[in-house]
Write a structure and sequence with these properties.
The structure is a single chain. By secondary structure, the chain is an alpha/beta fold. It is 36% helix and 22% strand. The strands form three sheets. It has a six-stranded parallel β-sheet with strand order 9-8-5-10-11-12, sandwiched between helices. The N terminus is likely disordered.
């Protein structure tokens, strides 16, 4: 909680003997922000020692939160970020393999191998086997269980936007998911005529939002489509390790995200909501 110019954090440690007594630490934090870098000085107000593991944990959580205080807009990708595409991918693979002697497991293993190389594994595997790209069944997509709650918690403090490679009708699909009411701006490739990772779609979103890159965050599952362009423009990049892209890993400096999360619930924690 904030008290004047200080942020006071209560950290709890469960005793090793599993009794339900809790130890509380009140830690005043003095900070100095300079070009979005931060110095944290942690002092235990109760005179209790903080071990290095707990100290490092607190520094990472508190430091991440404070570094995001300048953010005004949070932009989200849609596929494998807000919406779960796992069944749509499975449907595409089943259709592709129909009438062939290629097993689902063989295709799957090859596909994951491509994803580990930061490639679009499903398309590369179809190309590897000389198979046509089947229709994508958008009706198989569903909202991730934590998507609406995340947007609902962020909405009171932040403007929410979408930057996504999607076919026509993105607003209508978000409305059907029940989350359009939380979203202030939707920028989708089909309507804009330009796709990620082209910087123009990000610049369009920032222009329409009236937001500078340093005051915006981009949340997405793709290192190539979401993280690299956001970093290039000076946005805060947040890699959510969902969908098949979670099998990849940053291999170049532009692919290095500012933050890594495993769920949308962690996004709320990162922004202190």
């Amino acid at each position: 909680r904030r008290v004047g110019q200080n942020l006071q954090v209560f950290a709890f440690s469960h005793p090793a003997n599993q009794r339900f007594a809790m130890m509380a630490y009140l830690i005043p934090i003095s900070l100095q922000l300079r070009n979005f870098s931060i110095e944290l000085t942690l002092n235990n107000a109760l005179g209790q020692p903080l071990n290095q593991a707990r100290l490092s944990f607190l520094q990472s959580i508190i430091g991440g939160f404070l570094l995001l205080e300048h953010i005004k807009w949070i932009f989200f990708d849609v596929g494998s970020t807000l919406s779960d595409e796992s069944e749509a991918y499975a449907h595409r693979i089943r259709d592709a393999l129909s009438g062939t002697n290629i097993s689902y497991q063989e295709f799957w293993d090859k596909m994951i191998g491509f994803y580990r190389q930061n490639q679009k594994g499903d398309l590369e595997t179809l190309r590897h086997y000389g198979l046509a790209v089947p229709k994508w069944h958008k009706e198989d997509e569903k909202l991730y269980f934590d998507a609406e709650e995340c947007l609902k918690r962020l909405k009171p403090k932040y403007k929410i936007g979408v930057i996504a490679n999607q076919s026509l009708g993105t607003k209508e699909r978000l409305e059907a998911f029940g989350i359009l009411k939380y979203i202030d701006l939707v920028i989708a490739s089909a309507e804009e005529g330009v796709s990620k990772p082209d910087l123009r779609i990000f610049i369009t979103a920032l222009d329409r939002a009236g937001c500078r890159p340093e005051n915006a965050a981009m949340v997405g599952d793709r290192l190539d489509n979401d993280i690299t362009p956001a970093n290039t423009l000076g946005m805060t990049s947040i890699w959510i390790k969902r969908g098949f892209s979670r099998y990849g890993a940053p291999k170049t400096e532009p692919e290095q995200p500012n933050h890594i999360v495993n769920s949308l619930a962690e996004i709320c924690g990162l922004f202190g909501q």
